[in-house]
Inverse folding.
């Protein structure tokens, strides 16, 4: 079987995108399928130069048309993020593929309009068109499936949660018990991730005299802001994009994973990786994170865009060692029991077969 699959760049040295990480792992593990990767979307560090972006988008259409004309693949595994700026680009890709009568699986990976209907009627209609004309639609959770039915009347939806390789991401015991609590942010440096809120909350902890450190890994539009904060506050460390063994080591050297997203989350792979390594998750209720995390059991949930809620949760894990240990064990068990690779590829390949019948 030949499957076209799209994502931003797969170069882990310039891109920390969750979609790219998932696609990388699918291609690496699913040996029975021949994948053709299509580059869609910007790398984390790429600036929004209008004419360059237009040229890249037109080039992606040209590449797709050539593949379709030469009958180079059977099925399009279409990773779709429901962000305002990408809908109009992606609907053209969808329509071109449909015109050649190829099978299409839409794999939803978060976005503003996953849990909130657009105010613009045209945008709503375009989303409905893609979701209801696809051969299969994949949501990450029951919460997302219910939202699709309510917002777009899309009911034929399969649930396939993101997954992590627990043979790779696992506790290594490399964290020294020094009393210093290390918080980790791992993701795109973007306003949607609540990064500015996180830094403000962390500074409040430091000002109260707690012995803590905030490590920020990733790249994006807020890079200059983060670098300036790292120069200003000794307890904030900026490491840029991390990948491979370094990523595993940095996660394992940390105590708490923090992601106070404001909007657009699905199931972040970085969250699953951190939980698989035994970190305590402190995340907002955005997207499907509230379906993974049971507040006070396998993590702490904070209100979206609420500084007091975030600061209190971070202070709580700093002060209470027994709480950290209890949550860490349950977070690890959650991933091992529910988000590993054992059944993922079997389910994915079944969906491929169903889409082609």
């Amino acid at each position: 079987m030949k499957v076209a699959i799209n994502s931003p760049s797969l170069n882990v040295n310039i891109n920390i995108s969750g979609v790219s990480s998932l696609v990388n792992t699918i291609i690496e593990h699913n040996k029975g399928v021949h994948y053709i990767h299509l580059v869609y979307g910007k790398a984390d560090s790429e600036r929004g130069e209008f004419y360059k972006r237009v040229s890249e988008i037109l080039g992606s259409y040209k590449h797709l048309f050539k593949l379709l004309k030469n009958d180079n693949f059977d099925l399009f595994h279409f990773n779709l993020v429901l962000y305002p700026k990408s809908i109009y680009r992606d609907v053209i890709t969808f329509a071109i593929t449909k015109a050649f009568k190829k099978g299409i699986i839409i794999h939803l990976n978060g976005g503003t309009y996953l849990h909130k209907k657009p105010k613009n009627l045209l945008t709503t209609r375009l989303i409905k068109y893609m979701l209801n004309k696809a051969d299969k639609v994949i949501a990450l959770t029951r919460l997302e499936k219910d939202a699709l039915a309510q917002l777009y009347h899309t009911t034929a939806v399969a649930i396939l949660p993101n997954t992590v390789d627990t043979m790779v991401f696992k506790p290594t015991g490399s964290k020294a018990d020094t009393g210093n609590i290390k918080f980790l942010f791992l993701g795109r440096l973007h306003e949607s991730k609540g990064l500015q809120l996180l830094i403000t909350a962390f500074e409040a902890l430091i000002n109260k005299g707690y012995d803590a450190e905030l490590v920020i890994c990733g790249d994006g539009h807020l890079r200059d802001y983060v670098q300036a904060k790292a120069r200003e506050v000794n307890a904030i460390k900026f490491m840029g994009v991390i990948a491979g063994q370094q990523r595993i080591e940095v996660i394992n050297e940390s105590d708490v994973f923090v992601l106070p997203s404001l909007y657009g989350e699905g199931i972040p792979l970085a969250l699953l990786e951190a939980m698989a390594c035994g970190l305590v998750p402190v995340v907002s209720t955005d997207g499907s994170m509230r379906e993974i995390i049971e507040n006070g059991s396998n993590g702490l949930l904070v209100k979206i865009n609420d500084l007091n809620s975030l600061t209190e949760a971070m202070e709580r894990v700093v002060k209470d060692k027994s709480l950290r240990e209890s949550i860490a064990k349950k977070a690890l068990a959650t991933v091992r029991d529910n988000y590993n690779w054992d059944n993922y590829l079997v389910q994915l390949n079944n969906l491929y077969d169903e889409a082609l019948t």
